[in-house]
Specification:
about 200 residues, three-stranded antiparallel sheet, alpha/beta, globular, Rossmann fold
Length: about 200
């Protein structure tokens, strides 16, 4: 179980360019961090580094409460990025069940995700036929179907309409109230209490 996230002296390079150096922060249970900065400043790269998909040039990432960082990433971290990772040829229900099973969820979690994100009207539709906002809701469903303490979110509100943004805000508050952690890259303010961190400033 991840109870905190600590980043010390982090540096990330993309090609010949260093995006940032000496980045440091700590996030505790029930806290959210909003990453801001210009396009290309390194917000997405930081999320990918936290998820273990990108190796930092320098620094340390520690998951408090976890014995092994790799196991923590495998079992306790969700990354919802720009690419939704959904298979277009499956129905929404097939994709939801696949994602839940892959991440260690079960039928109860699938049912909870369908109800929480109002997915029932979409279940028989092929993923390729869904709108951008509907696809994002389906991707976000894995947060509910297979609960994990650390959410890494890349512009999570971007394709959602006002009602679905309100819904996601409620999900975030509930997650934090249960001791979860959220790191989100954003251009607009998060609709929850969050500490801000400007990348590339």
């Amino acid at each position: 179980m991840i109870t905190g996230l600590r980043v010390e002296g982090l540096a990330i390079r993309r090609g010949e360019r260093v995006l940032f150096r000496d980045l440091a922060f700590r996030l505790g249970a029930g806290e959210a961090l909003a990453l801001t900065g210009a396009n290309g400043s390194g917000k997405t790269s930081l999320l990918r580094a936290l998820a273990g998909l990108l190796r930092p040039e320098a620094g340390r990432i520690a998951f408090e409460g976890a014995v092994d960082a790799d196991a923590a990433r495998h079992e306790a971290v969700h990354l919802i990025g720009h690419a939704d990772g959904l298979k277009g040829g499956r129905t929404a229900l097939e994709e939801l069940r696949f994602q839940a099973a892959w991440l260690g969820g079960d039928d109860h979690g699938v049912a909870a995700a369908i109800e929480t994100l109002a997915l029932k009207p979409l279940l028989d539709l092929e993923v390729r036929r869904l709108s951008a906002g509907q696809r994002r809701r389906l991707a976000l469903a894995r947060l509910v179907s297979a609960p994990r303490p650390l959410w890494l979110l890349d512009e999570p509100m971007a394709p959602l309409d006002a009602a679905r943004r309100t819904l996601l805000a409620g999900m975030m508050r509930e997650h934090l109230s249960g001791g979860g952690l959220i790191v989100a890259a954003v251009h607009d303010p998060l609709p929850i209490d969050a500490t801000g961190l400007e990348i590339g400033a």
